[in-house]
Amino acid sequence: MRIYEQSSTTNKKSYTREDWQGGYQSLKQEYDYWIDDIEGEIPPELEGTLFRNGPGLFDINGEQIHHPFDGDGMISRITFTNGRAHYRNRFVQTEAYIEEQKAGKILYRGVFGTQKSGGMLANIFDFKLKNIANTNIIYWGEKLLALWEGAEPHHLDTSSLETLGKEYFNGVLSVGEAFSAHPHFDPSCAMDGGNPCMVNFSIKPGLSTTITVFELDITGAIIRKHAHNVPGFCFIHDFAITENYCIFFQNPVKFNPIPFALGMRGAGECIKFQENQPTSAIVISRNPQKREIKTLEIESGFVFHHANAFEKDGEIIVDSICYENLPEVEPESDFRQTNFDTLKPGQLWRFHLNLATETVNREIIESRSCEFPSLHPNKVGREYRYVYMAAAHDETGNAPLQAFIKVDIETRKKQLWSAAPRGFASEPIFVPRSNATSEDEGWVLGLIYDSEHQRSDVVILDAKDLTLVAKLHLKHHVPYGLHGNFVERVFI
């Protein structure tokens, strides 16, 4: 593996689908060990814990999950201390996970098409979805929380990863109330005297949609909660914050509930992209006293994840991974047979929102297929210079994520570290070095699925130039995950 400043000019693909498929095998064993098989050296000053979350099971006793987003959440914890690293994984013991493991079969419908056996009659009018706690893992207010955007978080023990129960934030969150899997951490909140705070949201869709904004102080208490109604159905996975605003991109989709109600399809399979309709940027003040909502139209596109947002020269700047359309989940399809050549890539775009003129201008920052943006934690909601993303190996076309890319927003210079042809990348996490003097001084941490050895590696890259510092070989693979965070504390 090495740095690639430019991709190959040949037409040969950087991957095989068979290699990529290997990362979608269930990992049913729970491990707890020190990592001893290491190339390079772990920086002794890298001290803390990398938490990762994602679906760990793609079948229950041989019954296949229709889509990975329906898989039960599995937490991986990689602890760095004194130049060593320790790995532990554990499934989130949700009520549904325990029930299905005991029964040895699927008992719940999944949002993205997983059905109970027995066909339409077994699923008709069954609206009970399981909280799979598989999307993100955060540490806030001295609590480790596994998140899934459709319901409340699960509270985990930081040492054993045991599931302690659901988290309701001292009763502020009601039973079953959604709490998004994409919180953002404001390093210095003006409304709280400069103290850090966590900002999150929930969506209650329908003919009109209720967006609720939550803000939590450093103790984990919800100190602000305000709800806003917007017209139309909203399918929103992530949002962005500035010092004064929350920004939501309302993707142009339509939801037909009838096939879901009749037990024919999952809810996610009933969402259809409307390519002739514009995307809307919904701007909501973080101050609960300011109730006005601004909605600006953007050229049609679909956004799962935002990189960052900030205010400058009378505009709100939003950097987002934008797709030409939504990759729809089809009934009877097999996600392992994805044909990447038929799908449009996600690309990094910059949107200039002018609230005074109610206009939007946009420009592309990175045209290479990319996802899962990460940046310096102190730059969230502020003007920033560097973004790190998982990316395709080749500059053009669509393909699995096999690389990490660093983009200098100011100069547009880019650097790429690739695990191709047989490695596949996860979300990168930027970890700043203590007492750093520059924004990109630190490390990029990530998990790479190594299809050749059917295992995963934890890689540590120098964030300045994406050179490999160390590669930690695990004893097993970790299925492709979703999101995670680094905490400057050691939990062993």
TrEMBL record:
Record key words, sorted: Iron, Metal-binding, Oxidoreductase
A molecular-function term among this protein's GO annotations: metal ion binding
Signal peptide range: none
Cofactor binding note from Swiss-Prot or TrEMBL: Binds 1 Fe(2+) ion per subunit.
Gene Ontology BP terms: carotene catabolic process
InterPro entries associated with the record: Carotenoid_Oase (IPR004294)
Cofactor(s), by name: Fe(2+)
Sequence positions that bind Fe cation: H182, H237, H305, H483
Pfam families hit by this protein: RPE65
Protein family per UniProt: Belongs to the carotenoid oxygenase family.
Protein name: Apocarotenoid-15,15'-oxygenase
Protein source organism: Brunnivagina elsteri CCALA 953
